[in-house]
Specification:
The chain is of the alpha+beta class and 145 residues long. The protein is 31% helix and 21% strand. The chain has a single domain, classed as 2-Layer Sandwich (Heat Shock Protein 90). The protein contains three helices and five strands. 29% of the residues are buried.
Length: 145
């Protein structure tokens, strides 16, 4: 899916991820839907804030493992020179928590160059456990809820 690199585009991406997950059987209020929608929101917000190139859109791809073991989200932008890095924001900081949240909610995440054209793709994978909550089983010791 392709979206404008604007706050409106990021909101639309988040909503469409939630709708797609509901179509796949992960109800709107389910932990899986809420987790993946939050991950999508953070990755889309980072794409428009840090990966924005005037006149260029960002792309989002949501896939489900064939066996139903997990969900993968990919957000691609066209700015290659700004690679995302997890920061530790100050207690009064108003930003800088996006990748901290993604890292806490996803089982794995990373960054790769875009397959076609300039830029990068930031991806996250969340395991879907039957009858259990999505995401990592344990949190790193420095995780602050």
């Amino acid at each position: 899916m392709r979206f404008t690199s604007t706050p409106r585009g990021a909101r639309l991406a988040r909503r469409l991820v939630s709708h797609r997950l509901d179509d796949w059987g992960h109800a709107y209020a389910s932990p899986v839907n809420e987790t993946m929608t939050l991950v999508a929101a953070e990755l889309a917000a980072n794409a428009i804030r840090h990966g924005h190139v005037p006149g260029r859109d960002f792309h989002l791809r949501l896939t489900e493992d064939g066996g139903g073991g997990g969900l993968r989200i990919e957000v691609a932008d066209t700015r290659a020179e700004r690679l995302p890095a997890r920061r530790t924001p100050g207690p009064d900081g108003e930003s800088g928590r996006g990748l901290v949240l993604v890292e806490a909610l996803a089982d794995d995440w990373g960054v790769v160059p875009r397959a076609v054209g300039p830029g990068k793709t930031v991806w996250a994978w969340v395991r879907v456990r039957p009858g259990g909550p999505p995401g990592p089983q344990s949190r790193p010791p420095d995780f602050l809820p």
